[in-house]
Specification:
By secondary structure, the protein is α+β, with helices and mostly antiparallel strands. It has helices at about 1-5, 50-55, 60-65, 75-85; strands at about 15-20, 25-30, 30-35, 40-45, 70-75. The longest helix is centred in the last third of the chain and has 12 residues, at about 75-85.
């Protein structure tokens, strides 16, 4: 949760949904994390292995985006902040 607060430092109402192929969706916002989709400012679509590799630091999110392994729609500024937090 602390990383989420860092991404949304001023209590932003931004919402991020991770749509994981053949698994389901996870939504993050200032209220926490929950299962399911929402009307999100940013949607990240990937398969479970790709998303796990990014979160573990084994895969570069930008490389995965450029190769089409992840699809991003919505607020690209928010996506950039999320990528920067994942690098830490």
């Amino acid at each position: 949760m602390s990383a989420l607060r860092d991404i949304f430092p001023n209590g932003s109402d931004a919402t991020v949904t991770f749509d994981i192929a053949n698994v389901g969706s996870i939504t993050l916002d200032r209220n926490g994390v929950r299962e399911g989709k929402a009307d999100a400012d940013l949607v990240v679509r990937a398969d479970a292995a790709t998303l796990a590799g990014i979160l573990d630091g084994e895969l570069n999110p930008m490389s995965m985006y450029l190769s089409g392994k992840i699809l991003v729609t919505g607020d690209l500024g928010l996506a950039t902040r999320l990528v920067e937090k994942l690098k830490q």
